[in-house]
Design brief:
Layout (H helix, E strand, L loop, with lengths): L9 E4 L7 E2 L4 H16 L3 H24 L8 H5 L10 H18 L1 E2 L4 H10 L3 E6 L5 H10 L8 E4 H4 L6 H11 L6 E5 L2 H10 L3 E5 L14 E3 L10
Parallel strand pairs: 1-4, 1-6, 4-5, 6-7, 7-8
Antiparallel strand pairs: 2-3
Helix pairs in contact: 1-2, 1-4
Length: 242
């Protein structure tokens, strides 16, 4: 039997496919909702608004892909990234960018699926005296992220909730981890990171001196000999470690 991890004062959780399952995002529905808003705001024919929405969405995907191919961990918001794409609509551009940000964000949080008892699982860590943080890569507006976490009964358990779009950097960039650690007032050696992705949730935290656990509860990514502290198949299995 492997020894327990000692000296842990805080547990930092990824969100999607770690604390809850992420279903595929309904992009078509988000596009349709935004196109209807755009049509009403600008007086465009619905087909014209739908075509404009599809083009902006295509350009956003291309811009994001190009950014990631450079190795950048920058995380601009949808509103920030789309604003230049709405320039042709003049004074309405900021409203359109914000509305698109909201439409995509609502579609994102709608796909979260928390298993029964998840809030109680997390509460157990908090009530044991451990500090708890949520650390997530997301372009969804932080207000929507916090609203959904509150709906799941999770937000009240968090000493910190850190989102990449809010700090401007996504995992595995070190700033997002440091922001969480500073919010918790703990050193990296006192923190355990739990997530489903090797690069973002194992290698990134380990590079700062945190210990990291890979979860296979919802998706299974091969650690390929990269030595996470443990691989678990349920959140409750963490109690066999700590």
């Amino acid at each position: 039997m492997e020894p327990r991890l000692t000296g842990i004062r805080a547990v930092l959780f990824d969100l999607g496919d770690t604390l809850f399952r992420l279903h595929p995002m309904d992009f078509a529905g988000a596009h349709d909702r935004f196109a209807r808003l755009m049509s009403a705001r600008l007086g465009l024919h619905p087909s014209e608004a739908a075509a404009a929405t599809a083009e902006v969405s295509r350009q956003l995907r291309e811009d994001l892909r190009a950014l990631q191919q450079t190795g950048s961990t920058a995380e601009p918001s949808i509103a920030e990234s789309s604003l230049p794409l709405f320039d042709s609509f003049g004074a309405d551009a900021p409203w359109l960018a914000a509305a698109l940000d909201q439409a995509f964000g609502e579609a994102d949080i709608a796909r979260w699926d928390a298993p029964a008892g998840r809030a109680e699982d997390v509460r157990r860590f908090a009530e044991s005296g451990l500090r708890v943080a949520f650390v997530s890569n997301t372009q969804t507006p932080p207000a929507l992220m916090r609203r959904r976490l509150a709906e799941f009964g999770l937000l009240e358990m968090a000493d910190a909730a850190v989102f990449s779009v809010e700090v401007g950097e996504r995992k595995p960039g070190e700033h997002i981890y440091r922001a969480a650690l500073e919010s918790l007032s703990v050193d990296p050696a006192q923190a355990l990171f739990v997530g489903d992705r090797v690069r973002e949730d194992i290698l990134g935290p380990q590079s700062l001196g945190m210990r990291a656990v890979l979860t296979h509860e919802f998706r299974q990514e091969d650690p390929a000999g990269l030595n996470p502290a443990r691989v678990i198949h349920s959140l409750t299995a963490l109690w066999e470690i700590l």
